[in-house]
Amino acid sequence: MTQVFTVTELNERIRDRLENDPRLHDLWARGEVSNFVYHRSGHRYFTLKDMDSQLSCVLFKNQGHDIGFELENGQNILVFGDVGVYRPQGRVQLVARGIKRDEGLGFRHLQFEALKKKLDLEGLFAVERKRALPKYPSRIGIVTSPQGAALRDVLRIIGAYPVQIILSPAQVQGEGAEESIALAVRSLRGRADVVIVCRGGGSVEDLWCFNSEVVARAIFECDSPVISAIGHETDVTIADFVADVRAPTPTAAAKMAVPEMEELKSWLIQAEIRMVRALWSDLERKGERLEYLSRSISARKMYSLAAEARQRLDFLGERLGGAAAGKLEGLMGRLDLAECRLAAVGPQATLSRGYALARTRRGLLLRSEDAEPGEVLELILAKGRLLCRVLESEDTEESH
Amino acid sequence: MSEREVGLEEALDDLERIVAKLEEGKLSLEESLVLFEKGTMLVRLCQGKLEKAEKRIESLTGELPSDLG
């Protein structure tokens, strides 16, 4: 039969299990202090955390006299103690018996600050030099580990967007990573419209290569805008300061690099509708003057264009549906009107306004090169016709 | 017109300009029609490029994990 515990019994059982495990006693843990509270009772409570995880800690009053310094949030420390369970809340915690500053990490921090200051003074972080990202890149350079999840995240977001992806593989942690990253960035010179330098989450040590001067300078010298996405949102490296844009994650970097496909597709449809609409209102406005159009656009051509545009509107209406289709209905009405006006303007109407049609045996003349000097032309007037000879041919700039 | 190697960016930029120009409404009807035809062609071109969904991945060192090929 299954046993049913009370919460108290269960927490006791968990506590017994943890507190009887010798591997959870007399241990050192490394991390950063946060949520530090120095309680009236004299006990110190805080959270020990690293990039990915955190653990409640307590330093009881009777253990706290001799740590030799006062705790502060953000400090890197080493805690000596035992894992226990605070039964009333069922909370696993580290009961400290000793605390030391973690000098190794602290030293790195000083190095970080020194390099940051130096590069800042040199202008590597200057806002004025941040470049805008291209709206529609055709070549994206990616500096990262070919094996990493970061690369997969970036590729997933780019998805079907048509773009050339140039992977510049780099070793993104461990010995030699700094030079590898710098080289990978430099190798993309002249090959990309935008560069993403990315890496997934990791320990401070893992990400440290992005705090190096060689990487900073390589990014600074990159000939296309650089998006940095290193670790998690809370990790900020020197590389992030130098990059043109800092993204919180590789996924976010990819979203910044390419436009959204669906948005782009609907923009294209909108562009077409706007063009049809603009053309129509143009037709309406110029309706009365259509008779002057006889030179390069025949009434027949206007008809076929109108028919084509009408089909196009039908098609767009189907694709858009709903409210937008209603708007198109209105456009169609205006199109009818424009067509009526066109109909009123046959060649005869034009001719009666003083225009003439010129033709040779080959057909109607539209351009000067349609007839040779010396050739005989037929001019059709509103009433009657004339036979004429070409004296001279002269080209004028014509856009069609 | 040689439209063989017009990039998406160039095509979209052109299209944006054409739409704006048409909407401005200061053109002759002939010019409008020419632009309209060009714009419609660019829409087709862009749609074609987006539909094609050709994604080319290459690696500067030549090595590409098999799942990315």
Please, what is the average pLDDT of chain B?
Answer: 80
What oligomeric state do the depicted chains represent? heterodimer
What is the CATH level 1 assignment of the largest domain in chain A? Answer: Alpha Beta
What is the strand tally of chain A? 14
The residue ranges of chain B in which pLDDT falls below 50 over 5 or more consecutive positions are none
Number of domains of chain B: 1
- The number of distinct β-strands of chain B equals 1
Largest sheet of chain B: none
Distance between the termini of chain B: 35 Å
Q: Spatial order of the strands in the main sheet of chain A? A: 1-2-3-5-4
Uncertain runs of chain A: 291-296
Radius of gyration of chain B: 18 Å
Overall domain count of chain A: 4
Overall mean confidence score, pLDDT of chain A: 83
Task: Write down the overall geometry of chain B.
Answer: rod-shaped
Write the CATH fold name of the largest domain in chain A: Rossmann fold
What Rg of chain A is obtained from the alpha carbons, in whole angstroms?
Answer: 38 Å
* Termini Cα gap of chain A: 91 Å
Largest interface: A-B, 49 and 42 residues
How would you explain this protein's 3D organization?
- The complex is a heterodimer of chains A (400) and B (69).
- Chain A is an alpha/beta fold and 400 residues long.
- Chain A folds into 4 domains: 7-101, Beta Barrel (OB fold (Dihydrolipoamide Acetyltransferase, E2P)), CATH 2.40.50.140; 126-257, Rossmann fold (3-Layer(aba) Sandwich), CATH 3.40.50.2300; 261-346; 356-389, no CATH class.
- Chain A is built from 12 helices and 14 strands.
- In chain A, the strands form 3 sheets. In chain A, strands 1-2-3-5-4 form a 5-stranded mixed beta barrel. In chain A, strands 7-6-8-9-10 form a 5-stranded parallel sheet. In chain A, strands 12-11-13-14 form a 4-stranded antiparallel sheet, with no helix packed on it.
- In chain A, a hairpin with a 5-residue loop joins strand 1 and strand 2.
- In chain A, helix 9 runs parallel beside helix 11 (322-344).
- The radius of gyration of chain A is 38 Å and the shape is elongated.
- The relative contact order of chain A is 0.07.
- Chain B is rod-shaped and about 55 Å long.
- Helices cover 59% and strands 6% of the residues of chain B.
- Chain B is built from 2 helices and 1 strand; from the N terminus they run H-H-E.
- Chain B has one domain (8-56).
- In chain B, helix 1 packs antiparallel against helix 2 (29-52).
- By secondary structure, chain B is mostly helical.
- Classes of the chains: A alpha/beta (400), B mainly alpha (69).
- At the A-B interface, helix 3, strand 7 and helix 9 of A face helix 1, helix 2 and strand 1 of B.
